[in-house]
Design goal:
The chain is an alpha+beta fold. The protein contains seven helices and eight strands. The protein has an eight-stranded mixed β-sheet, with helices on both faces. The longest helix has 23 residues, at 9-31.
Length: 269
């Protein structure tokens, strides 16, 4: 009873209210299947995904005006993102990777019905809804996104990395295995060698050698990073292979998830 006598009734009430708030948050997380509001799209930025290709292109042009190229801020955890397809379904995987410790922090995968047909230049409308859902399942925030796709190296300067980065307000880098647009010269054979990816007089990315003697990758900023930051992040995440580790691990994970999911051996996680 000494504690009660020494504490004012108002102070005790504040403690009770704080405990109730914590319990409400825990209850809401459990009710939502463990999902939190991490990596959720602000209401003002949400848009429909089931739209015509013409409307999708118009939306890309509008959202492209919100892309910001600026020095990349400090990054500790990177989310590698990748998708696979089978018939009318898309399989999405996200692997959160600790850049300094060079290890996987967390991974999530899921499958959804496809909402958009295959149309060149509109890849994000097929992949982004599932990738966003997978990102929402992460239990801890990430500092940047590393996408298997384009950033501004895109006909409307709004590839998958731009789309995800703008919607979530996160730094995003496109790290593609093949070119979509632009002209380039072969970079040197050493790891880290690069040449600019150009469209006329406009620079839209870099052709980056991430492994000595391996085919280069087409790296372009998507949002909240610049050309140097995008290339630096791809190299910092390197693990001795062509693809940066978060992207490579996401590619492996989504492939395994797709095979096991199709055989009904692996529940969504």
């Amino acid at each position: 009873m000494g504690l009660v006598k020494n504490e004012s009734p108002w102070r005790l009430l504040e403690v009770v209210v704080a405990i109730c708030k914590i319990l409400c948050v825990i209850g809401s997380i459990l009710q939502s299947g463990g999902q939190t509001k991490l990596h959720s799209i602000p209401t003002a930025r949400r848009h429909r995904w089931r739209i015509s290709p013409a409307r999708a292109r118009e939306l890309q042009r509008r959202l492209a005006r919100e892309v910001r190229l600026e020095p990349l801020r400090a990054v500790s955890t990177v989310a590698g993102l990748d998708c696979a397809f089978a018939e009318s379904r898309v399989f999405a995987a996200v692997v959160a990777w600790d850049v300094e410790r060079r290890r996987v922090v967390e991974r999530r995968a899921l499958s959804q019905p496809l909402q958009f047909p295959y149309v060149p230049g509109l890849l994000s409308f097929r992949e982004a809804p599932a990738l966003l859902a997978a990102l929402r399942r992460l239990r801890a925030p990430v500092d940047a996104l590393l996408c298997d796709g384009q950033g501004i190296a895109h006909p409307r300067r709004f590839g998958l990395a731009c789309h995800l980065g703008v919607l979530l307000g996160l730094p995003a880098v496109g790290c593609a295995k093949s070119r979509l647009i632009g002209e380039w010269e072969e970079p040197g054979q050493a790891r880290g060698a690069s040449s600019p990816l150009m469209l006329g007089s406009e620079r839209i990315g870099a052709v980056l050698r991430t492994r000595a003697g391996a085919r280069p990758l087409f790296v372009s900023p998507g949002h909240l990073c610049d050309f140097d930051g995008a290339a630096d992040l791809a190299l910092r995440c390197g693990g001795g292979r062509r693809l940066p580790e978060p992207a490579r691990l996401a590619d492996q994970y989504v492939g395994a998830f797709k095979r096991q999911r199709l055989s009904r051996a692996l529940p969504e996680a």
